[in-house]
Specification:
The complex is a heterodimer of chains A (112) and B (113). Chain A has 112 residues and is mainly beta. Chain A contains no helices and 11 strands. The relative contact order of chain A is 0.34. With 113 residues, chain B is mainly beta. Helix content of chain B is 0%, strand content 55%. Chain B has strands at 5-7, 10-13, 19-24, 31-38, 42-50, 53-56, 65-71, 74-79, 88-95, 103-104, 108-112. Classes of the chains: A mainly beta (112), B mainly beta (113).
Amino acid sequence: AQRVTQPEKLLSVFKGAPVELKCNYSYSGSPELFWYVQYSRQRLQLLLRHISRESIKGFTADLNKGETSFHLKKPFAQEEDSAMYYCALRGGSSGSARQLTFGSGTQLTVLP
Amino acid sequence: DAGVIQSPRHEVTEMGQEVTLRCKPISGHDYLFWYRQTMMRGLELLIYFNNNVPIDDSGMPEDRFSAKMPNASFSTLKIQPSEPRDSAVYFCASRETGNTEAFFGQGTRLTVV
């Protein structure tokens, strides 16, 4: 079974401070990992995926297979980063495992 | 394309009433997903369709929940009878084969009183 754990429901940081949103997963094969973001009153949207190895809006996330983690990081948080962030996993086998399994989400608040 | 369109945006209903949520996926997307979002559990996959056929409904909480996709451009999620614990935001998402990104609608906020 595949599982995604986001241990922090709420996270507050001050503007300009570094931020790290934790994500751990459980999956026996080679997963695809994603971060989705939901800004206030907007739809959920893809932020980044580990395959792309990209930096979006200053955020990066590295897949650590040894620690089964995919933490989201940004060196200097901005107020506009305040949102709900979901870590998601897509397994490699067939059927429903190929679909996204989401963590419970972390509400990030960046304080002025 | 306007993206995934869900209606209504908000629904308030009394316990015991039937509720129908609607979704129009992005044209050309052959996968459609229904998710439920709550504070306690985050995003839970309820059911998904591929080419209008339900593939996995193991996430549907009870028999009170049912979903249909009569054609490639329309899906419904029905709750009958509704209960206060069904209160949540229900999201519809779609994607196309070969693309790992799922596109979400703006959700329907359901309140059952």
